[in-house]
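Protein modeling request. Please complete all fields; requests missing the sequence field cannot be processed.
Requester role: graduate student
Desired output: 3D structure, token encoding
Chains: 1
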Amino acid sequence: MRSAVNIRAWSMVLGIATGGLSGCGGSEPVTPTTPAENTPKVDEPTAEVAAPWFRESAAERGLDFQIDAGMAATPRLPEIVPGGGAALDFDDDGWLDLYLLQATGEGGNRLFRNLGDGRFEDVTEGSGLADAGFAMGAATGDYDGDGDVDLFVSNFGPDRLFRNDGDGRFVDVTNAAGVGHPGFGASATFFDADADGDPDLYVTNYVDWSEATELECRNRTGRLDYCPPARYDAPTRDVLYRNDGDGTFTDVSEASGITAAVGTGLGVVAVDFDGDGRRDVFVANDGMPDHLWINQGGLRFKEEAMQRGCDRDLSGVAKAGMGVSSEDVDDDGDPDLIVCNLGGESDSFYLNDGGRFLDATNRSGLGSASRHFTRFGLGFVDFDNDGTLDLYAANGRVGASDDTDAADPYAEPDLLLRGGGGRFVPVRPGGGTDPTPARTSRGAIFGDFDNDGGQDVVVLDLGSPARLLRNVLESRGGWLTVDVRDERGAPAIGAVVRAALGDRMVTRRVRSDSSYLTAQDPRVHFGLGDLDSVATLEVVWPDGSTRTLRDVAGGRVLRVAP
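Delivered output (562 residues):
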């Protein structure tokens, strides 16, 4: 097992004594260029592996889906950004199902039931989920408190909320619930913003766009191409809905303070970044400074990204924020943060130091490793079960390549980086698969779809079949997956799980947000390395109640309830 990642290792890598606070964000030129960096780069070795980490298995596992975004000769902004979906156990049988989102409306969204062995069956017909809107993102949560996982879908157009009735059927309750905002929705998240025990809903909105406001942009070859959002000069506001506890929501965006700033939101996570017990909201904005809404209590939020060091990069540049992920990478107990950006820009990786952020992008190796691609869906996941988090990024351009003969001028290979010792190094073969395909990738959904202890990936590509990347790494270590439930039987979103692994205390959070336009497996996964058990496992629910288990055997999915 590799040496543990800890705050001391990260401090040595960063040179914290001379480091400063910095930020994250996004800019999106029509033709990406490589900006100069004011911080030194660290050359990273390539991590060679004997065999691929993943095998593409969508067709053999019954996952037949392809996004059609309607990309035509005359580019339109909404065509280049969709690619969402959700992992959820809608029938509560212990196996992750999938809900994948269609863009043009032809064929509609699709629901795939996991048959109990990692194979899938399309059960959309009769489920009530064959919605035909121009779908963007998905969020999952038990909004009505009946123990079933419900689905929210953000659209270019009115959003949709589907109530899970527990018999494999969903009911569109959008109008009754009051959540059908008609904007350009992107990522969304259910979280308890006011600590009253039921999940509220935050929805990012991208740009105030219509056919009438579309512009003509050309790349450096003179070919028509997609315009960056800054060209429209039409940022918009996100929406926060308060759950009223009776099946309805109230729009409290203005009263909560989140309308104090406009943006071009694409990615979102709701996490307690400052450790005060209240969940905050980070929004990745495309071409504008990112937002960090600090929860003040009483359903009030204050935007503090600049003060806390995560609105721009070290050079003061607002980057093209797209996907976002938050995990405790350095094992110091608080959630760290990564935002992925445009080709020519590096990712923005921040270590959380008591609610303020230190830019670790270059010293961690992510500066040089990530800047050659346009990244969308991404996640910190322990794929090799060695106890340290790795990083996967789904890539795809937003401006056509100079190769006018390319079958897909927006396609790029995905990226897999192995974490350890405070750094991330690219894995070969690229993306962890052999061969390494190039696609126009957007959303990435992470989870253990066959319950074998290896974290898998579903990648959603524009104009190509969805990919199911099964984790086939033979050298994986031990593992434990913890399925934390609330008193109603639903995933306990917002709970914290701590595992004592040797001399380390590893912290993971129960959440379904992160990545890009997607809802994730809410179960908590621990790679154990050479260990076969967890000495102490502590679960802290959002209401502060705790449960401690000792000598917990690994190699299984463990459900824990209050």
